[in-house]
Amino acid sequence: MKQTQGNNGNKKFGMVINLDLCTGCGSCMVACMAENNVPFKEDETDKLDSITWMRVYKLKNGKSWPNADICYLPRPCMHCGGHGDHGHSPCVSVCPAVATDYSMATGIVSQIYTRCFGCRYCMAACPYHVRYFNWWDPVWPEGMERFLNPDVSVRMRGVVEKCSFCFHRYQLAMNKAFLEGRRVLEEDEYQSACTQACPAGAITFGDLNNPEHAVHQLVQPDPKHAGRPRNPKAFRLLERLETNPKVYYVSSRKWVRQSGDNYLKKEKQKI
Amino acid sequence: MKIDRRSFLSFIVGGAAGTALTPLPWKITDDLSIWSQNWPWTPVPPNGEVTFVNSVCRLCPGGCGITVRKVDARAVKIEGMDGYPVNDGGICPLGLSGLQLLYGPTRIPYPMKRKGNRGDGKWEKISWEKAVSEVVTKLGEIRKNNRPHGLACISESDRGTVAGLMARFMSAFGSQNFIRQPSMEDSYELALYLMHGIRAEAGFDIENAAFVLSFGSGVIEGWGSPVRMFRANSKLIKTGGKVVQIEARLSKSAAKSDKWIPINPGTETALALAMAHVIIKEGLYNKDFIENHAFGFEDWTDGQGNKQQGFKSLVTATYAPENVAEATGVEKAVIVSLARHFARASKPLAICGRGQGRTSSAIGEFLAVQALNALVGNINQEGGFHAISDNDYIDWPEIETDQIASNGLQNGRLDEAGSENYASVRYLPHRFFENIIAETGYPIQVLFAAGANPLYSLPDTKAVKAALDKVPFIVSFSSFMDETAQYSDIILPDHTYLERYEDVPTPIGLQKPIIGLTRPVVSPQLDTKHLGDVILGIAKGLGGSMAQAFPWKSYEACLEKTLGRKLDTLLDKGYWSPAVFSVPEWIKAFETASGKFEFVVSDQDGNGDRKTKPIADWYTGVESQGDPVTYPLLLIPYDSMRLVNGFVGDPPFVIKTVEDTVLKGKDVFIEINPKTAKQLGLSEGKYARLTTPKGNAKVRVHLFEGIKEGIIALPRGLGHTAYDSYIADKGVNYNELIGAVYDPVSGLDAAWGIRAKLGKA
Amino acid sequence: MSASEEQNSPEAEAPDEEEMDVETSEPIEPLKPEEGKNGAGATIFLFFILGFAASLIVGWVVFPKLLYSKKIQPINFNHALHVAEAAEGCESCHYFREDGSFSGVPTISHCIECHENVNGEDPEEKKFVREYVEAGKEVPWLIYAKQPASVFFSHAAHVITAKMECVACHGPIGESTETRIYEENRLTGYSRDIWGKNISGIKQHSWERMKMDDCADCHMQKATSEKESGVQQSLTRQLREMVSVAFPNVMEVKKGSSVQTEKDACFVCHK
């Protein structure tokens, strides 16, 4: 995993979510919770303190009946590369504890729970609300802690957590590769839990730097413009902030693409 | 030497200086920080060897293949099984949460007997021997009194070996009262019986269809086998297939379809017939099929020599698009264009069954939709409608009933299914409970609830409860403390699906037969017993012909014997499907009196419930309950993948995904058009009192532009009173607000909504 | 003194004042107090030394004894004997699983391959067979190398890919003929082996401590190809880091994949 070949050897794991296929069923949310030991409370209807690394938002086109339309948008961590893709993500830049850092080797923004002391600067900095604070110690009803996944550590009260693109799956896949004398993973060896679970096949995950990977082919990231999609139906959230997210969305509906940023009326025409 | 203050301070300073030169402060600081990062009350899941077990999910009729990841003896994650024909790796939120049910607090840990009044929640732990012998004694008594028909059983399914054993038990015992929970299967089975002349399951080759016309079916909301439907929908989108959703409300399926046609709820039959009108008028129907393989299209003469109206003249006379435009709320031009697109599509397919299809519907609606399929000639064609019969792998010896049983069976079913009036229909659960309350027929003395939760999932919960109050002995076989288990007298808890073997017959709606195998992923975690073994145990306890009817040593032995060589394939691959399978050609597909597809479903000799009735009587829908003056609004339910609506409730993970515009705290939101809300003086988030002819509830208001003025919608799957604190007492159970509405020709519950009013609370 | 007393004896006070002036003027710079000061200084210094010495004893001798509780392994295991018998050395029992994960301490199911019945005369073996094998119970081994839940360590990466010897981290445990006392840190609950046998923190061998810095030592060594050890190594490393931060252009430090720490990203070892 050490950077040995300069930028060429670096991976840039990213996700493409096809909003035409997404049914809004919530499998990605639950797969994520089950994979990553995400805690739950009796009442999770206050969405401000409900920890969902992956959250499905409901978008509306704002029109009245019968022209109303809705669309669902799953939102994991965007793993922003920051302006110019130098790794200065909004959250990484503000963390005073080096509890979150940007990995050039994988393009993943990490979160180290034992390092975090809960100041929540990163939450304020993140424009996508992907970060969640543990206001309480996690509690599993008696016996239910038996399904906890040993590959992901359980978080305690007072720390921030967020989507890791299931980095532990990368580590485990690398273990297997090492055993087999390899140092490179096949595309399907490392897939996030949400990608694997999605019953509609709406999520694609892979290396955006690798032209052979489906994610690259789907969005055709433009390296001259920090990975902006060349596929006209693809977009990223809040593109103009230049946070350079690694999660792309594809939609054939214009109003959905326009919901990706706060556009002025005249700007909207171009989307 | 005097130790004064200064000496003491010096000692302290010396000590401090010395301490700084020891590891003590640094080590303690370090260790404390490690300690504070590893609180002893934060669980550390133990690591171990990772293994994977393939099985089949049993939490809904979808029958998805699952792969469970285990770490040593613990099951840690459920994933979709790659390559499984139904879901190929995909999985739904409920399937993913199965471990919360396995390890959760809603499990019933051991056999229990009621203490105190019913529903008090006071239980006494009893041994399995005692539990079985209690049931045996009760059953022995009613047999001794020559009233075996006083035993009834309500079950989630009637297919597969476990349901088969239960049904066999009922027959051997001498009771016909085996009842299946209602679903769209009731209506589809009946439609197939009437039109195709066969007892079969509806199969939909959606993956290969080019134009899917959905009459309110929640294609991506859990209709049929949910994950399979999601995958089929994705395939349609990728291959350019079209989906048109006809539905009163902008559901997810409607939003994701290529075209959403808002319709007034309950007028689907009329719309389908108006489309048929256009197709026939414009000659767009499949002439080969209609002329050579269908009967009743033209007018015909019955056995008595009377002229009878055929389908063609029915729709041409009555269902011109302009005649139904107002009632359905769909413009004439839209109907005409829709009919043309449907008929001209290369592989059109019409489907029905509202929402997730967890209720039965008016048979007229299913007949009308199936008539559309017949008109375009897609029956048993690629991308069309397939009739599948798959239950032939269960081939058990005939039951030799004793005199008591034979007498009991003479009494017929309490729900009147199969009787003179409802000869073709198989189960009428709501009528069963109604007859118990009305004390018609004969009294039910013992009720088995197996994998079914009627006290929550049947319409008019109050009436179901009143009926249960009249049954002196209720036996629950539930694994979970659901509403019915809570209201039973004795519980003989079943293993969960992750702890037992069971065959899984073809999932609902699949276009080809397949058998899956559920197998133990973990050893039984609690003192539970396989339902199959419990049935065998009770039968043995009763002795005589009952014991003889069950010659197997154990359920596993029975399963082995039943599946034979298929079991090897099942254990190896996880599923079995016939090497070669094709649905029969038209010439062999229909077993009706005419040997053809029948548009007109009256019996030509005038027998039973199919005695010659004018065709117009069959092709009708039903009205909603309640008078429009007192109840100016229409309440309809909606289904969601995030709200589980079967025999289990939402596990904690799934209820967590529910939006805060559906549930907030313990309050459920009712969807209402902003204009209607304004007229009622209601605004977003306000509390309101919802009243229907069946009950009332306090709800909150959510303004939604995707619903027509005058219609309000409530989600199904909330309002549980049982299970755990993660789900109990949240929201309102839709079934408390609605009652059954009988379809006059079939007797099925056809309620699709109810009239309601909404006022400030 | 109250005002009434002053009025009662105005005359008697005057001579006293004079006398007192004489007497009090003397001790301003007297000899005695100077001697006393020297004496007191010695006492104070003595007490300083006493305190100093006592704290050294407490810190270096008493504290380590108090900090660790001593535990005895459930079975006295002879590694040397087993290594001699086993065909594949350490890997006979501590092997890699097919998925690349490391099995760690063997379970009963593995031991049973040889110890289904008592093979020899050793009372410990008898105890093992009777209490664990026959009872079908796992042995509650106390694991010297057990790391906190927040640590991810890939044996595959180190043993297979980097071809490291087990000894490098675990020491010559394979040569031991009996199990050591397990010293458990009363505060953290982890083994003393993790922090190091030597309370000063100075290690003679690479296997004497298993903390994050020890990982870093080795990884830095690898990166700079220098053979240093113990304090020297760690000091030069820190010096080099300080120099590189202060004068970024003077010294070239090999950068890792993390943008923030310029080392490997935190989540490579933390989960």
Short description:
The complex is a heterotrimer of chains A (271), B (761) and C (271). Chain B has 761 residues and is of the alpha/beta class.
What characteristic shape of chain C results from the CA principal axes? Answer: flat
Q: What is the tally of beta strands of chain C?
A: 2
Largest sheet of chain B: 7 strands, mixed
**Overall morphology of chain B:** globular
Number of helices of chain C: 11
How many domain units of chain B? 4
Series of H and E elements of chain C: HHHEHHHHHEHHH
**How far from one another are the termini of chain C?**
75 Å
Mean pLDDT of chain C: 78
Largest sheet of chain C: 2 strands, antiparallel
- Oligomeric assembly: heterotrimer
Q: Give the count of structural domains of chain C.
A: 3
Strand order of the largest sheet of chain B: 5-4-19-18-17-6-7
Q: Strand fraction band of chain B?
A: 15-25%
Most residues in contact, chain pair and counts: A-B, 61 and 75 residues
Task: Describe this structure as you would to a colleague.
- The complex is a heterotrimer of chains A (271), B (761) and C (271).
- Chain A is 19% helix and 14% strand.
- Chain A has 271 residues and is an alpha+beta fold.
- Chain A has a single domain, classed as Alpha-Beta Plaits (2-Layer Sandwich), CATH 3.30.70.
- In chain A, the strands form four sheets. Chain A has a four-stranded mixed sheet with strand order 6-1-10-9. In chain A, strands 2-3 form a two-stranded antiparallel ribbon.
- The longest helix of chain A has 13 residues.
- Chain B is an alpha/beta fold.
- Chain B has four domains: 33 residues; 222 residues, Rossmann fold (3-Layer(aba) Sandwich); 222 residues, Dimethylsulfoxide Reductase, domain 2, CATH 3.40.228.10; 128 residues, Barwin-like endoglucanases, CATH 2.40.40.
- In chain B, helix 6 runs parallel beside helix 21 and helix 10 packs antiparallel against helix 13.
- The radius of gyration of chain B is 29 Å and the shape is globular.
- Chain B starts with a helix and ends with a strand.
- Chain C has eleven helices and two strands, in the order αααβαααααβααα.
- Chain C has a two-stranded antiparallel ribbon.
- In chain C, helix 5 crosses helix 6.
- Chain C has three domains: 36 residues; 101 residues, no CATH class; 61 residues, no CATH class.
- At the A-B interface, helix 1, strand 2, strand 3 and helix 5 of A face strand 3, helix 4, helix 8, helix 9 and helix 27 of B.
